Amino acid sequence: MEPLTWTGVLGPVLNPILMAGVAVLILSILASIVLSFVPSGAVAQGDGTLAARRTPADWARLVMQGALWLILAVILIYLGGGIVIPGIENKGIIGALSARFLPVWIALIVTFALSIAFKRRLGLYGKLFDNPIGMAGFGLVMFWIFTALSVGLFDWIVTHDPLTAVSGMKNKVPGTPLNGAGAGDYPYYLLGGDNLARDVFSRMVAGSFVVIRIAPLATLFAFMVGITLGLPAGYIGGRLDTFLSFLANLILAFPVILLFYLLVTPEIVQTGIPSFLAVVLFLFPIVFLVVLFNARFFTEPVKRNTVVAVILVTLGWAYLSLISQPGTPVSFMPAALDLFDIPGGILVVFVSVVFVNAPTVFRIVRGLVMDIKTRDYVAAAQTRGEGPWYIMLWEILPNARGPLIVDFCLRIGYTTILLGTLGFFGLGLPPDSPDWGTTINAGRKLLSIYPHPAIAPALALLSLVLGLNLMADGLREESLKD
Questions:
Q1: Angle (nearest 5°) at CA 80 between 76 and 86
Q2: Phi then psi for 36, rounded to 5 degrees?
Q3: CB of 464 within 8 A of CB of 140?
Q4: Per UniProt, what is the membrane topology (predicted)?
C-alpha cells in the first residue's frame, strides 16, 4: 500500500484554493496593519454634516474576513468529505481523521442544537451561545470531552492500542501503511509512529482521557475545599478568618510548580503523605453537601434527614473507596466493597492538584464573601432570622457564581498545563502513560528529525487550554451583563 496523502482525492481541487486563501489572508493582514495609519476620510453632505466612508483599511479588513471564511469553508469540506467519501486512500489523512471522530461530531452537533434551541432557559450557560468567542471555546472544550468519553467508555476513535509497539513502525511519518496488518487491523498509522513504534494518533486520543479524568474533577474538589473554608472565613471573620488565611498563605508561600513537584516525587509518595492528604481533602465534598442541604431543609426535618442520610451513605462509601488504596498506608476496604481501583500515580497527581489549588480558591471565595455580605439582601435574610450557613450557601454563594465559574474554567486550563508539565518531566504518572506531557517528552528527543510525535499532543494540549480560556472569556462577558 502507498502512504496516504494529507488531503486525498479532494487535494488537487481544494489545495490551490486553500493556498490562495492563506496568501490573501496574510496579505490582507499586512495591508490592514499598514493602512490603519492612514487617516480616515469623511464626506461633507448638503446639510453640513459629515458622513463616514470606507477607508482602504476597511476594505483590507473585509478582504481578510472573506479569506477567513474561505479557509474555514475549505477545511469543513475536507472534514465532511472524510466522512462521506469511501475508501481510506481517497479520504487522505485529514479525511480519515475526521471519519474516526464521527461520534464526536455527532455529539457536538446535538449539544449545540439543543443548547441554542433552549438557551433562554439555561441561565448563564445559555447566554454563552450569544457570545461567538465563548461558543468557539465551548466547542473546543466539548470536542476533547466527547473524545475522552468515547475513548474511555466505548473504546471508539483509537485505531491501535496506544501502548503496543508494531515492528517496523518506529518513527514512521503520518499516513504510513501498517506492517503486517491483519483483517481486523486499521491499515495505517494516521499520524505516524513514535520512537517506540506506537501509534501517535491513538496515544494522542487516549491521552485526552487521562487529562479529562483528572483536571476537571481535581479542580472541582479544590473548589469544594476552597468554598467550604472560604465562606465562613469571609462571613464570620475574626480568629477563624485569621487562622484559615494563615494556612492558605503558608501554602501559597511556596512556588506552585515546586510544591507540585515535591508532592509527586517518589520519596514523598513513599512516606504516605499524599494518602493522608486524600483522607482530609476528599472529605470536603461530603461536608459541603451535608451542610448545604441541612441549611436548605432545616425547617423540614424528615426531608432533611432523608437527604443527609442518602448523601452520607452513597458519598461515604465512595469516599472510603477513594482513600483506601492497596499498597499505601491507608488500605482497609475489602476488594469486594471497593468501588474504585485508581492507579497510584493518578491518585497522587489528583491529590496534589487539589492541595495546590484549594488555597487560591479559598482566597477568591473569601474576598467575594466579604464584599457580598454587605449587600441589602443579606441584611434582609439576617432580619428574617436565617442561619449563617443558609445565608452563606443560599444567599451569598449563588451571587458569587459568575467569578467562580470563570475561575473554574481558567483553573482547569492551569491544571491541564500542570499535568502536561509533570508528564514532561516524568513525575506522577507512569512512564508509559499516553498523557500529553509524557508523549511530548518522548517525542522531543528527536524533534528536529521526526517532529510529528511531539507536535500532535502539543497541539491537542494547546487547543484544550485555548478553548478553556476562550470559554472563560465568554462567560466573564456574559456574567458582567447580569
A1: 150
A2: -65, -15
A3: yes
A4: Multi-pass membrane protein
- Residue 51: pLDDT above 70? no
For residue 329, give the C-alpha cell: 498506608
Phi/psi at 188 (5° precision): -135, 155
pLDDT of 232-272, one tens digit each? Answer: 999 998 899 999 999 999 988 888 778 777 877 777 878 88
d(CA 424, CA 438): 5
368 is written with which cell numbers? Answer: 467575594
Alpha-carbon span 281 to 251, nearest angstrom:
14
Residue 21 is placed in which grid cell?
486563501
Residue that the C-alpha cell 479569506 belongs to: 67
Helix axes 200-236, 344-372, angle to 10 degrees: 40
Kindly list the distances between the CA atom of residue 39 and the CA atoms of 43, 54, 193, 194, in Å, as whole numbers in the listed order. 13, 11, 54, 54
Q: Which three cell numbers stand for residue 365?
A: 471565595
CA–CA gap between residue 186 and residue 158 (Å, rounded):
10
Give which of 184, 182, 206 is closest to 194, Cα–Cα: 206
The single residue listed with the C-alpha cell 473548589 is 223
* 3-state secondary structure at position 420: helix
**Nearest-angstrom CA–CA distance, 27 and 29:** 5
Query: In whole angstroms, how far apart are CA 187 and each of 174, 199, 313, 429?
Result: 12, 12, 50, 30
Residue 111 CB partners (closer than 8 Å, separation 6+): 142
Contacts of residue 436, defined as CB under 8 A and 6 or more positions apart, other chains included, come to 204, 207, 208, 210, 211, 419, 420, 423, 457, 458, 460, 461
| Residues paired with 298 in a beta bridge | none
Alpha-carbon gap, residue 212 to 405, rounded angstroms: 18
- pTM, full prediction: 0.86
For residues 390 and 296, the answer to whether their CB atoms sit within 8 Å is yes
Instruction: Tell me if 456 sits within 8 A of 201, measured CB to CB.
Output: yes
Instruction: Give me the pLDDT at residue 252, please.
Output: 87
Q: How far apart are CA 328 and CA 386, in angstroms?
A: 44
SS3 43: strand
